[in-house]
Specification:
This protein is of the alpha+beta class. Helices cover 52% and strands 10% of the residues. It starts with a helix and ends in a 12-residue tail after the last helix. The N terminus is likely disordered.
């Protein structure tokens, strides 16, 4: 461990307990759920800020922030810059946190394109604020997560999108084969601060923590060099925002459970499963009223619908109407192909090995998520399509007919078939499916270059 790293960890630890102990495990073993009251006693939570500033908690938070990296905030400070800064300034920051006077900096506005058009606005906090948010998150999540609904799957330890999709599939298989697909309009941008803070204040009494959370909400955003005030929303990009979204929508979970509905929620993506279209329409109307009147949130009517599961997507998957099969949603397949086309564009001028080196991490990550589908033929067809893209790429790189003929012969294609293929005026894509080209560039050739397979049998 470098001296810098030792110093920053020591400075964070020594300010709170003087021990400089190693951080506790960031992912403790999941314990069986216990019945926990939704609202904790004020006596339990009146010293929360001391827990936030505890050395072990801060070391764990720093490790998480450092591992996540991320771009600098409005102050331009990088992760490496923050080490020295915190070593020098942490005692002052800690003092302001403990006396309730710490003021976070505005977040930097970043826009990223959404798959279905438009942009998603992110708010990137500076590194120091990211560290403090992570420290607050760790203390609050440990208390609050056990009180959340079993039907909530997003941003929770030990829970995943795959679990939500699998549960939705079970509902459909049980005969609840109409889905009420709720889309909340710009949820993270529209959360009412007073509604949110009322729910936070019902769970904790440490006024310093309440003031700090509100300060993060009100810090403002920097856009085109100007600091713009913020009156609503929880900026996506900070560690604390996902937990606050679950706090806000916990009331929705409780209301749906009180009504006896079968539902799955992942962040602001909520699907309710009923037995008929008529029942679905009633549920859509009544739940929309609840969201508007009680939570001051708005349902996006153009993106929400009552429909059969096959007609909708949930977390990138669609479910057959009898619940027998989960499939990759068409939009997710389109997005995948669009990305692969960009990476295998025939005008890039890279070698095949370079293309595959870039492609491999994307394919592995995509497979890790969408390999959860139950349609192996779709995956094997995508594999064949990718190999054909690469054959087309190589055929274009082959240059003139003479060079292509020599390359086909070198790869074991007969003289006659090589001559026919090399002399063909057919376009690159059609030639990528030519028997001679496929014989020269068999599947095992791409395997040997490290091209990942998308379909991995369960026994593999």
């Amino acid at each position: 461990m470098s001296g810098k790293r030792q110093n920053i960890q020591y400075s964070l630890a020594s300010e709170s307990n003087g021990r400089g102990e190693a951080p506790a495990a960031e992912h403790p073993r999941a314990e069986p759920p216990v019945a926990t009251p939704a609202v904790e006693s004020p006596a339990v939570t009146e010293h929360l800020m001391e827990e936030v500033c505890d050395g072990e908690n801060l070391q764990s938070a720093w490790k998480r922030v450092r591992r996540n990296q991320g771009s600098p905030g409005v102050d331009g400070m990088t992760i490496d810059d923050a080490k020295g800064y915190l070593r020098e300034h942490w005692p002052s920051i800690r003092s302001r946190l403990l006396d309730g006077t710490y003021q976070p900096q505005p977040v930097k506005r970043v826009e990223i394109p959404k798959p279905d058009g438009g942009v998603r606005k992110l708010g990137v906090p500076c590194i120091v604020d990211r560290l403090i948010q992570q420290a607050v998150l760790q203390v609050l999540q440990e208390r609050w997560d056990p009180t959340f609904s079993e039907h909530s799957y997003g941003f929770r330890p030990g829970r995943s999108a795959h679990q939500a999709v699998a549960q939705a599939q079970r509902y459909v298989a049980e005969g609840y084969n109409v889905v009420v697909d709720l889309d909340l309009e710009k949820f993270f941008d529209r959360v009412n601060h007073d509604c949110l803070m009322a729910r936070v204040a019902a769970r904790i009494s440490d006024k310093r923590v309440l003031k700090l959370i509100r300060a993060f909400l009100k810090a403002g955003v920097v856009e085109d060099g100007l600091v713009l005030p913020v009156d609503e929303g929880t900026p996506q990009g900070g560690p604390l925002s996902p937990l606050l979204s679950n706090i806000m929508l916990d009331d929705l979970d409780r209301e749906l459970a009180r009504r006896g509905h079968r539902f799955c929620r992942y962040a602001d993506d909520c699907n309710i499963y009923v037995r008929s279209i008529r029942a679905g329409e009633r549920v859509m109307a009544s739940v929309s009223r609840f969201l508007t009147q009680k939570l001051r949130l708005k349902v996006n009517e153009t993106k929400s619908a009552v429909a059969r599961p096959e007609e909708r997507k949930f977390l990138g998957f669609s479910i057959s109407n009898d619940g027998s099969e989960r499939r990759i949603a068409p939009k997710a397949l389109d997005k995948f192909k669009e990305r692969v086309r960009e990476m295998t564009s025939r005008i890039r001028g890279l070698s095949l090995s370079q293309i595959i080196e870039e492609l491999a991490p994307y394919l592995i990550g995509w497979r890790g998520y969408f390999g959860f589908c139950q349609t192996p033929r779709v995956l094997t067809n995508l594999e064949a399509w990718i190999r054909r893209r690469l054959r087309s790429y190589l055929w274009r790189q082959g240059g003139n007919g003479h060079n292509r003929f020599k390359e086909l012969r070198r790869r074991g294609v007969s003289q006659f078939r090589a001559a026919v293929a090399a002399g063909s005026p057919t376009g690159f894509w059609r030639m990528s499916g030519h028997p001679a080209v496929q014989a020269a560039l068999r599947n095992h050739h791409f395997d040997s270059l490290g091209l990942p397979r998308l379909y991995v049998p369960a026994s593999a």
